[in-house]
């Protein structure tokens, strides 16, 4: 099984796995039916204040990453997401979805790398 990262606007969509939207805001122009989501984890996304400060400015990405990782460390939903992803990886791929245009400087990349560092997820990825 694999942990994947995909922009929600990608066509055709990858439905080969458990699909989790990790944005706080619903992506514009995407219908909930066509998104084919299994979960929408708004609570794992950056705080509104941090999201607005970052504003998808790639020059701020390093500082954004540092601040967002601090939020993740203090977010009880992080533990729940790790448990969910580890459980789903036992039987299927997990696809983290995001809406940002910049595919290299966004919160989903940070979540993805954060999850890859978690022992429970490393174990499931190794076992599969």
TrEMBL record:
The family database entries (InterPro entries) matched by this protein are listed as: YeaO-like
Q: Which Pfam families match?
A: DUF488-N3i
* Protein name, entry field: Uroporphyrin-III C-methyltransferase
Q: Which organism is it from?
A: Fructilactobacillus lindneri DSM 20690 = JCM 11027
